[in-house]
Amino acid sequence: MSKKLIDLVHISKSFDGAAVLDDLNLYIRENEFLTLLGPSGCGKTTTLRLIGGFDTPDQGQVIFDGKDITSLSPNQRQVNTVFQKYALFPHMTIAENIAFGLKIRKKSKQYIQDKIKYALKLVNLDGFEGRSVDSLSGGQQQRIAIARAIVNEPKVLLLDEPLGALDLKLRQDMQYELIRLKNELGITFIYVTHDQEEALTMSDTIVVMNQGYIQQIGTPEDIYNEPSNAFVADFIGESNIIDGIMVKDRLVELLGVTLPCVDEGFGQQKPVDVVIRPEDVELVDPSNGQLAGEVTSLIFKGVHWEIDVMANGFEWLVHTTQMHPVGSHVGIHIDPFNIQIMHKPESSDERAVETDE
Questions:
Q1: Is 17 helix (H, G, I), strand (E, B) or coil?
Q2: Most C-beta atoms within 10 A of its C-beta, which of 4, 183, 194, 277?
Q3: Burial of 332 from C-beta contacts in 10 A (0-12 / 13-18 / 19+)
């Protein structure tokens, strides 16, 4: 297992009296692709800026490779940042843009030329040295911004929603490019996004944040298949989240029916959140279902149908490869292993228990 490279210890940060991060603890391993994921205002970009040195925490320490760098300026840190707005210099050629940081560090002309060629080859833009920034597409500008960052040989590359301005196809292409670059360069990527699919596609580790707190840390598979609470389940992909009562171990009541499940340790007759993914809802003949309902909406999504079913007063979201027309009566069946039980939070902004990897 690779070693711990960055350690954020008891980090708190407020702006204008409003807490953005509250006693945040997080570590990042060497050569890891870690994504900070969450809605706007959750603290993910502030976390990135604290690692980059653009902000200073009110409390806590930023440890890098065993050294406290909390008070160091950005140019004293072994990190480079790629922003959503690429911040390329329009009056400079591509080569001059890429060389900017190297010239400041007074590298030799030959070293700089070699580095420019290497970086352009790495981002698949060979021969673009003399082009102007304005002649490039959004995706090409993005690649140049990444090339400019990697020639400085940072140990860590910070990426703040860098694909947000690109169209869907280009964004998907760039996701695979970033995975390739990370594997070839062997450096740590810390990536900020609010796009769940982007996080699931690229990350080794996802940190889900909300209201300045870490909600869950895990692999994409962990986060999707075993969300720690209803917020994570709802934010990562789509879910049916239903009020339930844990009757006893392995038995839950929801919408007036009692269903077997595999969860234990929630007590007896306790209110819980029941989370069921739309692809885990099986539509069957009404006589064979645990619940029966009526199809109210039908959308073809290419790989599957997205169907709404009104059953027992709840509108179920269902993903299925079988078409069921609007108005048809169906049964709903859910396998016990596909029912996830979660504690109800005491309040809407209850601090989630931080998890360690």
A1: coil
A2: 277
A3: buried
Alpha helices in 123-188 (DSSP H): 138-150, 168-185
- From-to residues of CATH 2.40.50.140 in the chain: 240-343
DSSP calls for 288-354: G-SEEEEEEEEEE-SSSEEEEEEETTEEEEEEESS---TT-EEEEE--GGG-EEEEPPSSTTPPPPP
Instruction: Give domain 4-225's CATH superfamily.
Output: P-loop containing nucleotide triphosphate hydrolases (3.40.50.300)
Task: State what percent of residues in the chain have pLDDT above 90.
Answer: 71
Residue 94 main-chain phi, psi, to 5 deg: -60, -45
Q: Please determine, looking at this structure, whether the domain spanning 240-343 carries the CATH number 2.40.50.140.
A: yes
The set of residues, in sequence order, having a beta carbon less than 8 Å from that of 129 and lying 6+ positions away, is 93, 94, 95, 116, 117, 120
Residue given tokens 């940081």 in the structure block: 101
CA 325 to CA 295: how far, in whole Å?
A: 7
Q: Tell me the per-residue pLDDT of 218-249, one tens digit each, with 9 for 90 and over.
A: 999 999 999 999 899 989 988 999 999 999 99
Give one DSSP letter per residue of 217-248, joined into a string. Answer: EE-HHHHHHS-SSHHHHHHSS--EEEEEEEEE
* C-beta of residue 247 within 8 angstroms of C-beta of residue 269: yes
